[in-house]
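Session log. Operator J.P. requested a structure for one protein chain; no other inputs attached. Running the standard single-chain path with C-alpha cell output.
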Amino acid sequence: MKKNLIILIIVAIFIVAAKPIGELVGTSKRSMFTKGFVEANPFGMVFIKRGSFMMGANDQSPFNLVKDKSVNVTIDAFWMDETEITNDEYKQFVVWARDSILMRNIIEDPSLEAKERQKYTTYNDKNNPFDQLSADQLKKLPLNWRAKLPWTSKDTTFQRIVKSMNYKDMNELGSKPQIDPGKITYKYEWINYDQAALPANKLNVNTGAYPKGATARVDTSYVNEFGYIIDSTIIRPLITRKDLISMKIVKIYPDTVMWIRDFQYSYNDPKMRMYFSHAGFANYPVVGVTWEQAQAFCNWRTQLFNSSNPMGGQDYRLPTETEWEYAARGNRRVALYPWGGNYTRDSKGCYLANFKPTRGSYTDDTGATTMRVASFMPNDYGLFDMSGNVAEWTSTAYVNFENSLVADMNPNFQYSAKQDDSNVLKRKVVKGGSWKDIAYYLQCGVRTYEYQYESRPYIGFRCVRSFNGD
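Structure written below.
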C-alpha cells in the first residue's frame, strides 16, 4: 500500500510540473507556481529587506544649516557589506591590477616568442593565429589568471619587462617585487543613462534608431606619450548604445600622505604612512580612497564575481543615500543612531561607536583614529560601524534640498558629473561620521559631502548589490 502511495505521489508531481504543449508557459524550466530562482547570499554581505521609513534628519542642526524636510519613502531589498571595505580587501584589487599590468606587458612585448606571450591569455583561435594579431587586438585579449607570473624569473627578457614597470625592492603588497604604486591603474566604463534619458535622445522603438542629430556628452581617458593620464569630456554623435559609454583610467593606490596633509602640526607620519601597506592594519577600513576609486573598485568587484559565476548578478555599487540611511536605521523607523537610542553611551557608560567624544579626547571610546572594523556591536540588520570609525561615500549627488526633488520610491538624486563640469557638481553625499567627528554627524539622517576627486583619512566606503527577486 505504501509503495503504491509513493508511486502515486511521484506521478502527481510529474503531472503538476509538466508543461502543456502549445500553451504559454514561458522559457523557464520552473513552474510559475514554484518559488523559482533564489539568489545566493553574497559573501560578507547582509540582506536588507524592502520596507519604508522616514528619511531625513531627526535633530536640529547645531550650525543652523538649511534642514531638508523628512519624507516617508519605500526602498527595495538589497545586499550590503556588513563592514566597510578593509585595507586587505582593497589590497586584493590593487594586487589584481598590478598583476594584470605585468601580464598585459608580456602579451604586448614583441621580443618574446608568441607561444610565451600566449600563455598569459585565454585566446585560442586557430583560424586567426595569435602571432598575427594587431597591437590593438592584443590589448583587448582576456587574461589567463591561471598562468604563473614571472616575478622572479631569471630570464633576461622577463626581468626587463618587470624592471620597465619601475621595479622596487620595497615590499608593500606581499612577497613579490613591486611596481611603483603610481603606475597601478584600472580602466573602467559606465553607461551615461542621464544622456540616454534626455528627451532629445529618445530611442524610436519602431525604427530602433536615435533621433537625427542626437549627441551624447561623455568622458574619456587616455595615457599620453609621457605616461600621464589625460581626462576629457567629448560630445559624440549618438548612433548606437555604445556611444553612451564613458571611460576612465584611474590610479587606484590609496593616498598615503593624506594623514599629514589633512592634519598638519601633528605627528601622524610614522604610524600612518604604513596604514595601507602593513599587515597590522589589514582589518582596518581603507581610507584615502576617492569616490572615483571606490567606483572603480565596485566595477572590478562586479567583473570578479561575473568571471566565476556564469549566471552573473546585479552590479556591485556604492549605496544611494537613501539605501545607506535605511540600512543604518536597522528597521527602527525613527532611530537617531544605528543602535536605536538617543545617546552615544550604553547603560554602563561605554561609548557605542568610534568618534570624537570631547575636544582633544579621541580615546575615550577606546580608539584614537581608525579602529578595526566590527569593534562595536552591529545594528539590528547586522551591519557594523554604520556610525563612526570612517564616514562613507554614497552614489548620491549633494544638494541642500534633495528630499524636495526625489520620488518616494527608491529616491535618489544622482548626477553623473563630467570632467569639465564645475566642482559644485562633483560633490557626493557622505554619511555616518568618523573617528574625528562629533556625535552630531553619527546620526542616521545627517549628511555632509566631499568632492568626488578628493581623498581623506576619515572617508571609506562599502558596497551594495540590488536583490533579484521579491
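Operator note: The two ends are 41 Å apart (CA to CA).
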